[in-house]
Design a protein that fits this description.
The protein is an alpha/beta fold and 328 residues long. It is 28% helix and 22% strand. The chain is built from 9 helices and 11 strands.
Length: 328
Amino acid sequence: MTAEPILTISGLDVDYGTGASGVRALRNIDLTLHRGEVLGLAGESGSGKSTLAYAVTRLLSPPGVITGGDVHYHRPGGGTIDILALSPEQLRAFRWQELSIVFQGAMNSLNPVHTVHSQLTDVLTAHRPGMRAAERTARAEELLSLVGISTDRLAAYPHQLSGGMRQRVMIAMALALEPEIVIMDEPTTALDVVMQRQILRTLVELRERLSFSVVFITHDISLLIEFSDRIAIMYGGRIVEQAGATEIYRDPRHPYSEGLLHSFPALHGPRRELTGIPGSPPHLSAMPTGCAFHPRCAKAFEPCATRVPVLAAPDADQDREVACWLHR
């Protein structure tokens, strides 16, 4: 990847709770989002994907707490912002204008007693106080058109919209102030397959038109292969593999990545048996020693149970990183 970085995460640790009752949800996360890139984040439920999104945006709810690491945003014109060091006032200005998020429960995130117009213009009122009412309405109409919704829906309430339309309104809200980064936390989970494809097609068109960077979080790795430039696989609060989407699909190096790829049916080519991954993800309060995946891994051998593998480039492949003893 030759593009310059726009977001760098280094050594990020997140705990839920403190003392003897605390658990480590994220462990030494290192990740870079490049300008204009779609970075996919995949893994089973409980792997730490949403926790990472909320930590980066500083939206962790108690008892979640960031216990270590750095998160830096690199401005387009130069200069770096330490997101974890921002004051509440600075953070309020930073969110939505530089970085926005579409939450996991996006279809239910709209206020049921306010119209679409009210909720879209609230964002503009809070962050662009100099805009006149007519300008805010014009911008709201532009945003709806951007995501393929008729402007007459501005007067509608959320219950009058379909699930896909509510999702599009949330995406429009995230793009209201033209942020450089949009984090999408499983934005298509509650939608049917046809609507998922429509939402993804809309996102691709918007990304090409507006040139923002995307972190797309999902448990469905098949979506990421179609949509992402690069994919990072999470398991047990760690990143276990990251590479280009095509490389992950054609040649997964971590056994967990391979298991995820064989857990969904191929739409083209010969039929194959779905193998899945045996067992269940580890509980945060009882993490296995060594590699967290080793109790479920058919390829585990001597060092896997006792030593934690480091995320590093296997062989001479500098565009890929994998945390597995098979490649050391």
